[in-house]
Design brief:
homodimer, 170 residues, alpha+beta, 7 helices, DNA-binding
DNA sequence: AATTCTTGCCGCATTTAATGCGGATCACAG
DNA sequence: CTGTGATCCGCATTAAATGCGGCAAGAATT
């Protein structure tokens, strides 16, 4: 029983957490992989690959989704086709007086921001943005300035892209 | 006739190209948006939002996919659930003797590489990788070194993530 | 101004896929 | 050895996607 072990001993509790994730076996991994390649494959089709019935596959997908391992079904879109031609990376040294929480809220709400990570090194945050034109980059920086988030910043433009893909299980 | 215009005049030809992309109207944009949020929505459901019949919606999705504006149907997966806990950015100054094409091939084939862009500034490429552990970062750098791709490099680890999402039309 | 032609849409019929559920099997704990 | 839980299968049901004929609006042609 998980709960008993938990009450007994924190180490065993940790094992149970690990076990919770380990509930995902090779088959789940394979299913997630197949869905990442093409989320429209039928359950029967997937079942043919992993040697399970459609219902069993369905149940596994349900579990993967419920546990958050699969976060959502979506489409990959071409930024250029949607008029977002410019890709840039902005390094930010935060002006902490303006409030780190406010900064995070702003970033999280900004549709142009694709990535924002707290990073090691001389900068506090690394931000990846997609905008329609170069002036979109300027607008973005201007917004950061207006809100007093910037102590210092540096911007790199992406000239071309070798590869750009969301995380996929493999 | 497009072809006649093309033969007449290069400017008109350009207009035709623009027209090709402009074939995507606000409804297509909205549909792509809805699919990005949840690719499993039914055609009827989407049709309800954009005020079209399921068949019309289906036809539009088919066109969006065929034109490449929608690149594929996929799932967003949680890297941590799949054991890829470490996110890092590697800046590379390329040793051009080793061959830029070989570098690109290597990068494109490497499953750990999520992003790789040619960028402005002091570095040639910015690479985003996901690996299971810190030693995975070392392994990656080691591989670049072995192949003589590195003139110089610098690595930033992501300590935490404010937001991380693939491009979505909006 | 009249007439093709094209394009996009609707709505229904058909086909395909997903879902829900009862019963069988297996692993494991008591 | 027996009970318990989890997972699976297979079928019946429900829901969704697909395919196609016909219609209507707008553009191009004459």
């Amino acid at each position: 029983m998980r709960q008993e072990l938990h009450l007994q001993n924190i180490l065993l509790y940790d094992l149970c957490i690990a076990d919770y994730f380990a509930a995902m076996d090779e088959i789940d991994r394979k299913i997630a992989c197949l869905l990442a390649e093409d989320a429209r494959r039928s359950l029967a089709d997937i079942g043919g690959v992993v040697d399970l019935s459609p219902s069993a596959v369905n149940e596994r997908i349900r579990r993967l989704t419920a546990s958050g391992a699969i976060q959502r079904f979506t489409v990959e879109a071409d930024p250029v086709a949607f008029g977002q031609d410019v890709l840039a990376f902005v390094f930010v040294a935060l002006n902490y007086e303006a409030g780190e929480a406010a900064f995070k809220d702003f970033i999280a709400a900004c549709p142009n921001v694709l990535d924002c990570h707290h990073v090691t090194g001389g900068w506090s945050y690394l931000i990846k943005i997609r905008v329609a034109t170069l002036s979109g980059v300027e607008d973005f920086l201007q917004q950061l300035k207006e809100r007093r988030f910037l102590a210092r910043s540096e911007t790199m433009l992406a000239l071309s892209t070798v590869t750009e893909k969301p995380f996929k299980p493999f």
